[in-house]
Design a protein that fits this description.
α1 runs parallel beside α5 and α1 packs parallel to α9. The protein has 376 residues and is an alpha+beta fold. It contains ten helices and 22 strands. The protein is globular. The chain folds into two domains: 167 residues, FAD/NAD(P)-binding domain; 143 residues, 2-Layer Sandwich (D-Amino Acid Oxidase, Chain A, domain 2), CATH 3.30.9.10. The strands form five sheets. The chain has an eight-stranded mixed beta sheet, sandwiched between helices. The chain has a six-stranded mixed beta sheet with strand order 9-2-1-13-22-21. The longest helix has 20 residues. Its EC number is 1.-.-.-. This is D-amino-acid oxidase. GO terms for molecular function: oxidoreductase activity. Keywords: Membrane, Oxidoreductase, Transmembrane, Transmembrane helix.
């Protein structure tokens, strides 16, 4: 049931966090309007590798939240078993052959948490997953996590928006960017750059890398570690690779229509330049080098061709942990800002909607409050 004091909400941002939260609120009977500065998924959600995982080493609260996130995708996958936009074909990762190799430590940590993990030699990989160039795997071996997968976020967002529309939700994409309206010390809605106001009981900031700046404009601090990210999607290619690969020089995953999505931090660092007008210049030679690195870890070293390139901020809080919940200094204002937007996409929307309509704090989010930055 919906709390009687919350009957309307404005969500700023039509990425996965915004749309997921909007659908959950609409299911609870709240009248919801989403404001976005263009088509849905035009920000970070449209350029995400979208690896569904809780691999490697992180805090236990963060691990539990991510596992809950994967659980929701399992439920969704059961509803759409033949979907080409959501797959659970596992993840494979290995490190460079140097003093920073942490495969041993990562494997032991994952096992300690009960995370499904197999430590494999290069020769053993073909027995559990296809399409990998075994010669690229370093001597320390690789970890295969059979419970991992990937999702195509624009496709998922499109699916959620269909339900949102049937529930009476409104999507506004032609009024420019929006900002929260603060009157009398509380959030009362949002206003677009075209001057249109949308009044509501609560406002949710789900604008990806822009959340810290928007919070700061309202006098609130959210630690920001957002880097620039570059994601390349390839043209269709028939290839047997099914698992998500996270390797020393490249990360890649299959995608709908026999495509592949590819990224690497070094490629963004070396290949993207911010222009004075706020746009980006892309070094095509770096993109070519990134494709070459991807081909090296794929069986047969296939020729990969660029279909699209996405560039922009990758939302990452300064301490690496999600930032979710009410801005307590501004009643009625909530935020959702985190890395791993794909893995957390469904669960954060669910938990944030729970908090909005009940006025209660969910224990899974207890360590991820925005207020921790005000105390540091």
């Amino acid at each position: 049931m919906t709390d009687n004091t919350i009957s309307s909400a404005v969500i700023i941002g039509a990425g996965i966090f915004g749309v997921s939260t909007a659908v959950q609120l609409a299911r609870r009977g709240v009248r919801v309007t989403i404001l976005n500065d263009g088509p849905p998924a035009n920000g970070a959600s449209g350029r995400s590798l979208s690896w569904l995982n809780s691999a490697r080493m992180r805090s236990e609260p963060y691990h539990r939240l991510r596992m809950a996130g994967i659980d929701r995708y399992r439920t969704l996958s059961a509803r759409f078993p033949d979907a080409d936009w959501l797959r659970f074909d596992g993840g494979l990762t290995w490190d460079a052959d140097d003093e920073h190799n942490e495969i041993d430590a990562a494997y032991r940590y994952e096992v300690s948490l009960g995370y499904d993990a197999q430590w494999l030699s290069a020769a053993d990989v073909a027995g559990v997953t296809s399409g990998v160039n075994a010669s690229a795997i370093t001597a320390q071996g690789a970890i295969f996590n059979p419970g991992e997968g990937w999702v195509d976020l624009p496709a998922l967002i499109g699916l959620l928006l269909k339900e949102y529309s049937t529930l009476g939700g409104v999507l506004v994409t032609d009024q420019g960017a929006a900002r929260p309206l603060i009157e009398g010390g509380r959030a009362v809605g949002a206003e677009t750059t075209m001057g249109v106001r949308f009044l509501a009981d609560v406002v949710v900031l789900a604008t990806g890398p822009a959340v810290p700046r928007m919070a700061a404009e309202s006098g609130q601090t959210i630690g920001d570690g957002t880097p620039v990210a570059l994601l390349v999607q390839t043209r269709p290619l028939a290839h047997p690779l099914r698992a998500v690969l996270n390797t020393p020089r490249v990360a890649l995953r299959p995608g709908p229509g026999s495509t592949f999505s590819i990224d690497a931090d070094w490629a963004a660092d070396e290949g993207v330049t911010l222009r004075e007008d706020g746009g980006y210049d892309i070094d095509n030679s770096v993109v070519a080098a990134l494709l070459a690195e991807a081909a090296k870890v794929m069986e047969g070293n296939p020729k990969l061709e660029v279909a699209t390139i996405g560039v922009g901020g990758k939302p990452i809080p300064s301490d690496g942990e999600p930032v979710v919940g009410a801005l307590k200094a501004i009643p009625g204002c909530y935020v959702a800002f985190s890395h791993s937007g794909a893995t957390l996409g469904l669960i954060l929307g669910e938990l944030l909607a729970f908090e909005v309509v009940t006025g209660s704090e969910h224990p899974l989010l207890s360590t991820f409050r925005p207020q921790r930055f005000a105390l540091s």
